[in-house]
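Lab notebook page, bench 4
Experiment: in silico fold of construct C2
Operator: M.H.
Input chain length: 175 residues
Purpose: comparison with the prior construct
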Amino acid sequence: MNALSSRTQHQQQAGFTLIELVMVIVLISILSYGAASLFFSRDAYSGFIAKNQLLSQAHLAQQVALGMSAYQQANVADPLNPVTLTVGTVANDWVFTLSKALVTNPDPIMVDSSGGILIIDGVTITSGSSQSFTWDTLANLSPASNHEIRFVGDTTARVCLSASGFAYESQVTCP
């Protein structure tokens, strides 16, 4: 009878209770949240956000330029105004401004640089400086040349603009 009693006692202690498992999961999630903040800072995301905003604006510029080609074919007045995307820095922000003559321009998009730097075609862009990229009515860059734009901070984000007007992300040097 003593052996039967010890077998029953062993079966009761064979696993964890649901409360114990839930408490372990809660503790692990709290610790992982705290540890993640040590590895990821706001600076790490600013280049990523700037890269995405630049890609978005470049794609929009290309779409507007393609829309202009339809106007040119329909002989609508003023088809030759190019679309321009200006990329620059102002104080602690990276700034992206899309413009086209005779079109109401949206406000520029500003991304906090968090102390990072902007490098366009190997040249560091200082505060107050900028560079413009122009898409013609066929949605090609004018003049036709490739460009590399890097946002450098805790991490590096790279955008390539091809001579054909297409913008894309690259992990390596742009061609």
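Observations: DSSP finds three helices and nine strands in the chain. The chain has two domains: 2-34, 42-169.
Next step: discuss at group meeting.
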